[in-house]
Structure prediction request, 119 residues.
Amino acid sequence: MHWKTWQGWQKPGVFQWYEQACRYVWEKPDHQKSHISTRIIPAVHGEFGNVHMYPAAGQPQILVSPLMSLYWFFDAKVVIERSLILDAVRDAASVGEAFVIYNLFVRRLKLRPRRDLPY
Prediction:
C-alpha cells in the first residue's frame, strides 16, 4: 500500500475529533463503549496486540492490528488514483456489468494465498 493512502488520519483534526467524540460519549454515565473504536484508537496511537483501552475483568484476548488505522482513516482520493480496476469498470452500464468485468479482471491478477489471522 502506498504511504499516501493512510495519511487520511493525519489530516489536521480528523483523528483527534474522532477520538474526542468517542471518549466524550464513553465517559458519560450508562454509555457502552464500542468494541471497534476501542481498537482503532490504540492502533492509530501505535499500540498493537492484546490492548484494551478500558480494561475490565473477563475481557477476551484481542488482536489490535497495525492495519486497523488504515481501514478507518485513509485518503479516498489516493485510493481511487491507485485503483487497478477503476479504468476497467468506468464505462459499465450497470452494477451487474461492473461485477462481470470485476470478476474477469480479478482472475487475471496474481494474488497471494489467503492466511488466517493468528487468533
